[in-house]
Amino acid sequence: MNKDAKLIELRVSDENRWFLDVDQVEINGVVYHALIKCDEDGIPDTHCHMMVEKEKVDELGEIELVPVENPKEFNDALDMMIARQGVNAIENITDENGCFELSDENGESVKFELIDSMEHNGVIYHAVIPVKDDDDSFVVLKQSFEEDGISFGTIDDDNEYEEIGNLFLERFAEEGDEEDE
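User: That's the sequence. What structure does it adopt?
Assistant: Structure tokens below.
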């Protein structure tokens, strides 16, 4: 978990859920929070879905987080956070060693090491290696900006996966050549 991220518990649809509060931005006096759904240990769910909520002061003066329902307001807050952090949102969930955890489709926690990130044709991709694997083959995650947040997932299209995988391999080869000099 990013050292700046804060684990919080929120009531959503009549049940308590856990989130990592990974960023905040103030626009026109309103504070917006970028939240990543996770378990009570701070491990993000499979798709690392990010949402934006805003602070609202209730009648007792206590602050609560409420969903941002206006798409323009949501996009403005998210754009400001992305501009401040850079487009590489995966860095918000990595620890000091460049590792992060996601839950797989079976709910099992899997730890990954972030090897590299790049933008290609307006899309952000991440090369990661499962930490427990003895194999040093990398997996490519695709960062998506959706109407209700940012998510990270695998690439379903074989051609796209091969193209991006090859671009990463070229980058790794170039880095190796630079180190040899």
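The CA atoms of residues 12 and 74 lie 18 Å apart.
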